Amino acid sequence: MDLDALRFANFSQLGEAITDWTQMAKKLETLKSDAKDNLGGKAAKARWAGENATVTRTFVEKTAGEFADAHTQARTVTRILSDTRDELVSFRTELTEAIAQGAKKNLTVRDTGEGSFTVTMNIHPDRAAKGTTLPEHSQSDVDGLRDRVEAILKKATHSDTSAAEALRLIVDQATYGFSGADYADRDSAAKAVAEAEAIAKILKKDPADITPTELNKVNGTLATYGKDPLFAEKLATSTTPDGLLKFYAGIADPYQGYGADPKQRMEQAKLLQKNLGIALGTATLSDSAAMRSWEQKMIKLGPDELGTDHANNPRGFAVMSNLMRFGDYDDRFLNDYGEKLVAFDKERNVEHMSPWINNWNNGDLNFYSKNDRGRDPMTGFLEALGHNPGAATEFFAQPEGAGAGVDKESEVNQNLKYLTKDRIWLSDVYVMGGDNKIIAGHDSLGHALEAATTGYAYDADPMTAKDPMIPGNRDLRTAETAGVMEQVAFLYGSEDGPKMLHEQSQLADSLGKMGAAYIDDINYSLSGIGDRAKDEELFPPKYQGRAGLGEQGAINFLSVLGQNETSHGVVTTAQHLYTLSMLDANPPTSEANINNAHDALTTGGEARGILDHSRVQQAETTFKDEAEQQNKSLGRSGDWVKLGAGVVVGGGIAAIPVPGSTAAALVVAPLAADTVGNAVNTFIGHEIDKGIDKAEKDPAEQAQFTSQQFYGQGIQQQADAYMAYIEGNPQLKQDTNLRNWPQDIEHSYFGTGSQQNDYRGRPAYKD
């Protein structure tokens, strides 16, 4: 900054700008509240139909969110401008005082342009008035004034340029709309940028030369600032995509950079994978030209080897896919990346010729599972989709022109078909400690499909978010997510479905979660006669564009899910809860409600019967004459009722814990009503406690389960639901219309006729 620019600066225009921005921020705060409570709140509660559901609702919700971002951006701009103005005014005052102090020693400071200045005598003794005594000064006085002025100008320059850079980065974050970057003051924004520049310098070094202290600093800073938008973008654009990939590959390589404590080095590498992945994800959310260029370069690097001595010289895809396991990534970037990865992978999908998992590729790039070394980039990419639902739904979207429902493979997304049916998947376990029967990629594929069909990240807790303007605590399904679900149900309910589920057993929990998430649409598909006379009044859509599976499609899909213990348990729990919620939604207070309750019980009984018949048939087929093993298998399946102990209900959905998984791995299942009644509370209350008590008293007895007992328990639970309903109204017991209900419910569960006992679904899988 030039001396005179600061010395004679007029900050009145900047003050006026701050006043304008302050007023704008206040107005936008009001608009934000109106948009959140009125526009967004009403949109979330409204029942949308037709084009409004897929176009208008999305536009309304996005617009409401833009008001919040506009307020945040205006507030941040105001803070940065205000802080910078105050700092520059104080620097001007400090400069004026320094010049005044210099004048007392006959020294002055003159601007020489382009940021330079000189310190000279103010009045030369030869030109002083006669009799005037000029103050004396020493060289140290000259040097002191010079240094003081130089320090002031340096601080003023930093304040001005850092504010300008922060404002430019904030504005460039979004080409259209507004940035959500929020900073309390100029210093915090400037510090984020400065920290990024400092870390970028370390990342440009050869990873073999990185000291433990430097690596600790990198991880510490990334952990602190990884979700900061200015930091993330500055970090990415201050490095090169290939440089970042080489750096991580070098840190991950166990043969590089080892010091006295290799275990500690690997722990730091594990942290780097997560911390750097989160930061790069945040960076991709910026829509600046610099980031768009960075993303294109990163994708272009994918097929090529990096040209490094570290980690067996991996390809770009192999490294980036392991970083993107963590973080929130831009949907467009993930889809562009994934399309190129799949295209490259398809060309090399040859038996015993994997470009990723082979004897010469021994670079380990993932530190978060003994069963996943990270050599297959498809696994890491699918994990990224599992954490980014919007991108996942787009990646597996139905082809354009596909009609309602899916009944042929030409209506299946090519990415989905390739990954579920055509790709050769290999186990990628660590030599020591891994289970070579596990294919990590199948698990990750399930995670991606969960996100694509439910709208939630696969490991999200849907019951934690309370604000209706952010994802959580509500049904996030759309016509687009339903389109993915239709394809999944078609593929896994097809003739190849039992074989696919058997060979991809790691998907069982995910398929169960998907079935549970659409249990209302499955019940709707089972209602009516064939595919006619569907009961939309009893099973109204909870979102526009509901999944259309068709009766046979729903039967086929349920019959495959029932073959696996895990998927059977998850979907059975969701089905039971949904039926009970239907009873709560239709109390016995009117003839219409009573008729609805009857149909809910019979439709729910049919769904449960399909699942249970399939489970029994699969146990008999798998274990053949091994009666004890059959019994134990059915015993485990019969114990699904324990799942109800951890159910949490809110906002018209139930969160059900998956057995044997972490607390965050929840099933999101719809309920018939937003409020919970006695029937649902009974299931998640004392009835569950009794079931657990019984299991604890005699676990051996619980493990021994004949098919007769298994079916007996199934029909008993249907009977319990029926009794809970009619006991809510004593007069109902005298209603002659209820005379045939027990027989109707029993027939729906067991089936009638020679073919009905198999429920027309897929047969059990045979090796």
The mean pLDDT is 83
Low-confidence stretches: 44-56, 686-703
Can you summarize the main beta sheet? 3 strands, antiparallel
What percent of residues adopt helix (DSSP H or I)? 55-70%
Rg over CA atoms, rounded to whole Å, is 33 Å
| Counted beta strands | 5
Explained architecture:
With 767 residues, this protein is mostly helical. It contains 29 helices and five strands. Helices cover 59% and strands 3% of the residues. The strands form two sheets. Strands 3-4-5 form a three-stranded antiparallel β-sheet. A two-stranded antiparallel sheet has the order 1-2. Strand 1 and strand 2 form a beta hairpin. The radius of gyration is 33 Å and the shape is elongated.
In short:
With 767 residues, the chain is mostly helical. The chain has helices at residues 3-7, 12-45, 51-103, 139-172, 186-203, 212-225, 229-237, 241-252, 262-284, 289-301, 316-323, 331-346, 377-387, 389-395, 414-422, 440-454, 479-492, 497-503, 508-517, 519-526, 551-561, 565-585, 591-623, 627-638, 678-683, 686-697, 699-703, 707-726, 741-750; strands at residues 107-113, 116-121, 648-650, 653-657, 666-670. The chain starts with a helix and ends in a 17-residue tail after the last helix.
For this entry, give a set of tags.
5 strands; 767 residues; single chain; 3-stranded antiparallel beta sheet; 59% helix
Q: Secondary-structure blueprint of this entry?
A:
Layout: H1 3-7, H2 12-45, H3 51-103, E1 107-113, E2 116-121, H4 139-172, H5 186-203, H6 212-225, H7 229-237, H8 241-252, H9 262-284, H10 289-301, H11 316-323, H12 331-346, H13 377-387, H14 389-395, H15 414-422, H16 440-454, H17 479-492, H18 497-503, H19 508-517, H20 519-526, H21 551-561, H22 565-585, H23 591-623, H24 627-638, E3 648-650, E4 653-657, E5 666-670, H25 678-683, H26 686-697, H27 699-703, H28 707-726, H29 741-750
Antiparallel strand pairs: 1-2, 3-4, 4-5
